[in-house]
Amino acid sequence: MSDEALCKAEVDRMLKNSQTKVIFPILTLALVREYSNSSRTIFSDSEIRKLYEKTVKGIQKYFGHDMHVGGRYYDAYPSRNLPRYGVLKSVGKSQYELLPPYTQAAPFLCDWIPERIKQHISDRLGVVPHLADHKFRAELSGDREQFLRVVTQHIDKNPTNFEIFSFAVIKVHLEKFACKIYRDTRTSAHDRGVDLSTNFGVVYQIKKLKIYSQAAAKNIYAELKVNFDSERLQDGNVILVIDDISKEVKNYLINMKVQTISKDELLKLASQFEDMEDKEKVLRIVHDEFRREYSSNIK
User: Fold this and answer.
1) How far is Cα 28 from Cα 86, in angstroms, rounded to an integer?
2) For residues 206 and 166, is the Cβ–Cβ distance under 8 A?
3) Which residues, 6 or more positions from 275, have their beta carbon under 8 angstroms from its beta carbon?
4) CA 70, CA 75: separation in Å to the nearest integer?
5) The pLDDT of residue 11 is above 60
6) How does DSSP assign 190-258, residue by residue?
7) Phi, psi of 191 (to 5 degrees)
8) Mean model confidence pLDDT for the chain
9) How far is Cα of residue 283 from the mean position of the Cα atoms in its chain?
10) How sure is the predictor about 20, in pLDDT bands with cuts at 50, 70 and 90?
11) pLDDT-derived band of residue 193, with 50, 70 and 90 as boundaries?
């Protein structure tokens, strides 16, 4: 395998492992850029931090947004994380050496990494960063088919998308009845789901899961019993927002006083928004919630 191919594989692995921020590919880009400019291979921790922050700001300017770009820098990154990808090795106290094949492939990586990060963020976030633009939101909101296409295409991308788009649709729907809903938690534990509280005693729990068996439903109900008090469950004040659910399982949970809302039902709800203002509000809420999750720590 060539030097370029080895580096590409490792950067792709970094991106796959990234959560709410792209960090290690940008650190790698910062180091190979500096090597290309100065031929330096030895860097102190403080130098790496400065190069990283400078590179983050440049990438943000290049992309035109700061979503998913620029997590907080920690000393462990050059000492523990980057060595796992073969980028650096320790050569002394807070001193690190940039290693081959990154040195040999530096000119290629300087051009390739920014575009690869851009593609990764586009694949993960789609049009979400562009929803900051009121004009862009208005154009999407003014066309019912475009609005529904955005919601349908993005709600399925990953658990974070499912949770945020579900929240936005439910929030706008409930506001029509003077009801408020709050998303206080962040999407850091997708297997457990995210809770939405309301001002009328009901709690929504969002899970990107497909439930087709009664055994799976029993497991879900057992988890709900742990997460919520018995009185809330007995009063029917817990609603489960789920990716998909069979009719049998839906009826089983109804008998246990747990209502469910499937993805198809959410999309149907979104299709019922007739006012442009409602559709624009959904997109604005989506953008605001994504910013809360993905906005950079480095400005």
Assistant:
1) 10
2) yes
3) none
4) 15
5) yes
6) TTT-EEEEETTS-EEEEEEEEE-SHHHHHHHHHHHHHHS-HHHHHTT-EEEEEEEE-HHHHHHHHHTT-
7) -70, -30
8) 94
9) 16
10) confident
11) low
Kind plus residue range of the DSSP H or E element containing 43: strand 42-44
Question: 42 in helix, strand or coil?
Answer: strand
Answer yes or no: is pLDDT of 46 > 90: yes
CATH 3.40.1350 matches 128-294: yes
Fold classified for 3-124: Arc Repressor Mutant, subunit A (1.10.10)
- In sequence order, what are the residues at sequence separation of 6 or more whose Cβ sits closer than 8 angstroms to the Cβ of residue 257? 233, 234, 235, 236
Question: In this predicted structure, what is the pLDDT of residue 6?
Answer: 98
Q: What is the mean pLDDT of residues 146-172?
A: 95
Location of structure tokens 């789901």? 193
Q: What pLDDT is attached to residue 185?
A: 61
State both tokens at 212.
């087709």
Indicate the domain borders of the chain: 3-124, 128-294
**Measured torsion, CA atoms of residues 68, 70, 75, 77, in degrees rounded to the nearest 10:** 50
pLDDT exceeding 90 applies to what percent of the chain?
89
DSSP state of 22: B
